[in-house]
Design goal:
Elements (H helix, E strand, L loop, with lengths): L18 H9 L8 H8 L3 E5 L5 E4 L1 H7 L12 H10 L10 E6 L5 E6 L1 H4 L14 H6 L3 E5 L5 E4 L1 H6 L5 H7 L3 H4 L5 H13 L1 E10 L6 E12 L5 E10 L1 H15 L9 H16 L7 E9 L2 H8 L1 H19 L4 E6 L2 E9 L2 H16 L2 E3 L2 E3 L3 E8 L6 H17 L5 E3 L2 H21 L17 E9 L5 E10 L6 E2 H10 L3 H21 L6 E5 L2 H4 L4 H12 L6 E6 L8 H14 L2 E7 L6 H6 L4 E4 L1 H5 L10 H11 L3 E4 L5 H10 L3 E3 L10 H16 L7
Parallel strand pairs: 15-16, 18-20, 20-21, 21-22, 22-23, 23-24, 24-25
Antiparallel strand pairs: 1-2, 1-4, 3-4, 5-6, 5-9, 7-8, 8-9, 10-12, 10-15, 11-12, 13-14, 17-18, 17-25, 18-19
C-alpha cells in the first residue's frame, strides 16, 4: 500500500478527510476529481482503516474513529498495528456477541484493509438511490472494493467496476446480463445464498460472510468476504440488498496454514501434542461408542536414545535432520488410518487403531523398531538410531487418554531402566508396579504433609521414614572418608529405599520436600558427631534430575548449610548416571556447577551401566565416578566383564576424576580395586548400613582403633 497522498487528493496532513470534501459530501454537490476518495470514505456506512506495509496506519475515516473511540481528526501515521489491535481488544470488537464488528482483508502489496460495522448503522430506513446517476455515482465507480446491489430473489442489479474486474469481465452490463440466480451461479455451495438471506432476515446485515465462489467471467474458484445490509423503502420494508465484496483467498490460505501450524509440529509435520491428544481421545471415545469395539486402541510412546549426544557431537542441524528422519519413518508407520505425533523434543507417539491383542501389537512393534533403527546419513557419516518404545492398549490399560499415557509411560520407563533400545508392552507386572507406586505415593504424601512445601533445615523425617548411613573408606590407608546417605521407608509391603523412594516422591511432587528433610537430618547428625569428638567426613546425599530442575534448589541448599554453620565442602551430591541424558540436562549441569563452585563434591552413581558417555563427562562438573554393585560382583567371575572396572577406573583417571566402588563384599575385590587405582570403597566388607546414632558412633570408634593398630588393618 503506497503512502498517503498529499492534501490535493482530498486529505489533510493528518491523513483524514479535508473539510472541503466533508462539506461537498454533506451538501450533495458533485465531488471534484480530487475529492472522490475522501467522498467515498465519508459516505460509507462502514468504518475504514488501512494499515500500510510498515504497520503504520495510512487511512482512518470518521466512522472508524467513532468505533475506536479516537478523535475524528486523528493523524493515522501516529498509530500502528499494535496500538490498533490493542484498541480493538480493549473495546471488545472480537468478543462473542459484540454488536460492533471488524473484518480484516489482506491487500496484494502487503497492506491490510479493516472494515468496521455496527448493525445500528445499517438498520435505518434509507433511500439508497445514491447508486443511480448523480452525486453518488463517483463513489460507486471509484470504490477500490467491489460494491453491489442485488434483488431479494437473487438477481444482480448493480455492480461497480471493481466487482466487474473481480469477475474477469469488461462492463457492468455484461455481468448483469450473465447473473440471474446468485445462489446457483455465484456460490460454489448454493446453500450459502439461503444462509445469507436467513442472516439478513434475522439481523438486517451480514458481516464478514466468507464463501467460496466462481467468478462469472473467468470461472475461477476464489474465496470472498461480504459485508452487506438490507436497504428498506420509505415504509421500512426490505427493498434490496447492498454490500461490499473483497477477495479473501489469501486470507483463507493463511488461516488454513495457521490452523495446520497450530495442530502440527513445524519441524516434522506430525501432529503436535495438543492435536495428538485430541486424536487419542477421539479414538477412545469412538471405541466406547461401539465402533471398532472388537479391537483395541494402542498408544505407542517413542523416545530417541541419547539424542542430546547427537546435538553435542554433530550439531543442532544434524539433530533436526535426525528428528525429521524419525518423524518421516513414524509417519510411514502410521499410514492413512493411524496417527503419528511429536510430543516435544525427542518424544514421539503413535496411535494404532484396530489392534486385536498384545501379540498383534508385538508384531507391529517389531516392524516399527526395525524401521526406526535403519541407518541414515548424519553430517556426512552413517548413524544408527536407537529408540526406546513403551506401548499400552486401550481400554484394557486405560479407558481415558491420561490413564493410557500413564500405562505406556510405565512401559517406556521400564525399557529405559533395562538398557534402552527395545520395546515393551504394558502388562500385568507393570500394572502391579504402577498400582503399588500410586499407593506408595498417596501414603508418602500423607507422611510428608503439604504437597511440594519446602521443609527447611529444621524439619525432620516423620516416622517411619529414616536415614541409613553406609561408611566408605579410602583404599590407600583404610581411613574413614564419609557416609553414603540412604532414605529408608520400612513399608509393611516391603522396604522402599534409596532411588526407589526418590521415584515415589517424584511421582507425587514431593522430592523437594523429602530432600529438605533429609538435609535437615544430616545436618543434625553431623552436629551430634562433631560434638561427640568424631570426624564424620563427607556426607554423600542422593539427588535426582527432578530435584535439580528446580532453579531455586542450588541456592536453597547453599543457604541451608550457611544458616547451619556448615561448609559445603563437607557434602557430596550423588547423581544417577542416566540423569546426564535428562531433557533438562543443561539446567542440571548449571545447578551442579553452582554447587560445585560453592565447594561440594559431585559424584556419578552406578557408573558403567551404559547410560553416560565421554561427552557428558566433559560437560558436567563431575569429581568422582562410583561403580555399582553388579559391576563389582563381576570381578570374581571369569570373562570380559571382570576387567570392566579396571577400564572404567583408567577412563576416570584420564579425565582427572576419582574412582569409587560400592557393593564390595570380599577382600579379593578390595585388593583388586586398590591395584587398579580405585580411591574409595563401600560395602559389607567395610560395614553394613547403619541406622542409629549409637551404631554410627561405634563404627567411627572401631575404625579409628583399627587404623591405630597397623597389624590389625586388613582393608
Amino acid at each position: 500500500m503506497a503512502a498517503p497522498r498529499a492534501q490535493a487528493d482530498g486529505f489533510n496532513d493528518h491523513g483524514t478527510v479535508n473539510d472541503g470534501a466533508v462539506r461537498a459530501a454533506s451538501s450533495g454537490a458533485e465531488p471534484q476529481a480530487h475529492e472522490i476518495l475522501p467522498h467515498l470514505l465519508v459516505c460509507m456506512e462502514q468504518g475504514v482503516v488501512i494499515v500500510g506495509q510498515d504497520d503504520r496506519l495510512v487511512l482512518c475515516n470518521a466512522r472508524a474513529a467513532e468505533v475506536l473511540g479516537w478523535p475524528t481528526h486523528i493523524k493515522p501515521t501516529d498509530h500502528d498495528r499494535r496500538e490498533l489491535d490493542a484498541r480493538e481488544t480493549a473495546i471488545g470488537l472480537q468478543r462473542a456477541g459484540a454488536r460492533r464488528h471488524v473484518s480484516r482483508h489482506p491487500l496484494p502489496d502487503g497492506a491490510e484493509l479493516r472494515l468496521y460495522s455496527d448493525p445500528d448503522w445499517l438498520r435505518r430506513p434509507v433511500d439508497r438511490d445514491m447508486l443511480d446517476a448523480g452525486d453518488g455515482d463517483s463513489l460507486f465507480r471509484n470504490s477500490v472494493i467491489g460494491v453491489y446491489r442485488s434483488s431479494l430473489d437473487g438477481t444482480q442489479v448493480r455492480a461497480n467496476p471493481a466487482l466487474v474486474r473481480l469477475n474477469g469481465l469488461e462492463s457492468e452490463e455484461e455481468l448483469i446480463a450473465m447473473v440471474h440466480d446468485i445462489g446457483n451461479e455465484w456460490y460454489v455451495d448454493p446453500g450459502r445464498r439461503e444462509a445469507f438471506k436467513r442472516l439478513m432476515e434475522a439481523h438486517g446485515e451480514v458481516t464478514d460472510f466468507v464463501s467460496e465462489v466462481i467468478t462469472t467471467g473467468t470461472r475461477r474458484r476464489i474465496w470472498v468476504s461480504e459485508n452487506a445490509w438490507v436497504v428498506r423503502d420509505t415504509d421500512g420494508d426490505p427493498a434490496f440488498y447492498e454490500g461490499t465484496v473483497v477477495e479473501a483467498s489469501q486470507r483463507i490460505r493463511d488461516e488454513a496454514r495457521n490452523a495446520h501450524l497450530a495442530r502440527h509440529d513445524g519441524l516434522t509435520g506430525l501432529a503436535n501434542r495438543t492435536h495428538f491428544h485430541e486424536q487419542l481421545r477421539g479414538a477412545l471415545q469412538a471405541h466406547a461408542l461401539g465402533r471398532d469395539h472388537a479391537d483395541g486402541i494402542a498408544l505407542v510412546c517413542v523416545d530417541l536414545d541419547r539424542f542430546k549426544d547427537v546435538n553435542d557431537t554433530f550439531g543442532h542441524e544434524a539433530g533436526d535432520a535426525l528428528l525429521q528422519a524419525i518423524g518421516a519413518r513414524l509417519g510411514a508407520a502410521a499410514g492413512g488410518r493411524d496417527c503419528a505425533g511429536r510430543l516435544g523434543g525427542d518424544e514421539f507417539a503413535l496411535i494404532f487403531e484396530r489392534v486385536a491383542d498384545s501379540e498383534a501389537l508385538a508384531q507391529r512393534l517389531d516392524t516399527l523398531i526395525a524401521a526406526l533403527r535403519a541407518p541414515l546419513s548424519l553430517a556426512g557419516r552413517e548413524y544408527h538410531p536407537s529408540v526406546s518404545i513403551g506401548a499400552a492398549i486401550g481400554p484394557r490399560d486405560g479407558a481415558e487418554a491420561d490413564d493410557l499415557y500413564r500405562s505406556a509411560d510405565a512401559a517406556l520407563y521400564a525399557v529405559k531402566g533395562e538398557g534402552r533400545d527395545a520395546w515393551r508392552i504394558f502388562d500385568g507386572d507393570l500394572r502391579r508396579q504402577a498400582l503399588r507406586q500410586r499407593s506408595l505415593a498417596r501414603a508418602l504424601e500423607g507422611l510428608l504433609g503439604e504437597r511440594g512445601r519446602d521443609a527447611g533445615a529444621s524439619a525432620t523425617l516423620p516416622a517411619p521414614l529414616k536415614l541409613a548411613y553406609t561408611p566408605f573408606i579410602a583404599t590407600g590407608d583404610g581411613r574413614h572418608s564419609g557416609f553414603a546417605v540412604t532414605p529408608v521407608w520400612p513399608h509393611p509391603e516391603g522396604e522402599v529405599a534409596g532411588r526407589d523412594l526418590f521415584a515415589v516422591a517424584e511421582a507425587s511432587n514431593l522430592v523437594g520436600n523429602l530432600f529438605d528433610r533429609m538435609l535437615g537430618e544430616v545436618i543434625a547428625m553431623r552436629h551430634r558427631l562433631v560434638a561427640a569428638g568424631h570426624e564424620p567426613g563427607l556426607f554423600s546425599l542422593p539427588v535426582s534430575a527432578a530435584l535439580l530442575r528446580d532453579p531455586q534448589r542450588p541456592s536453597g541448599i547453599e543457604a541451608t548449610l550457611r544458616e547451619a554453620g556448615i561448609l559445603p565442602v563437607h557434602f557430596e551430591l550423588a547423581l544417577p548416571e542416566q540423569a546426564l541424558h535428562d531433557r533438562s540436562a543443561d539446567t542440571i549441569r548449571d545447578a551442579l556447577g553452582y554447587l560445585s563452585e560453592a565447594g561440594m563434591r559431585v559424584a556419578l552413581e552406578d557408573f558403567g551401566s551404559g547410560h553416560a558417555s565421554l561427552t557428558q563427562l566433559r560437560r558436567f562438573p563431575v569429581d568422582l565416578v562410583r561403580m555399582g554393585a553388579p559391576l563389582i560382583a563381576a570381578i570374581d567371575r571369569p570373562g570380559a566383564e571382570a576387567d570392566l572396572p579396571q577400564t572404567i577406573l583408567a577412563l576416570a583417571r584420564g579425565f582427572g576424576l576419582q574412582g569409587a566402588a560400592s557393593g564390595v563384599v570380599r577382600q579379593s575385590q578390595f585388593d583388586q580395586l586398590a591395584r587398579w587405582g580405585c580411591h574409595y570403597v563401600l560395602g559389607d566388607l567395610v560395614s553394613p548400613r547403619l541406622e542409629r546414632d549409637g551404631a554410627v558412633i561405634a563404627y567411627l570408634a572401631a575404625r579409628a582403633a583399627l587404623i591405630g593398630n597397623a597389624d590389625a588393618f586388613l582393608v
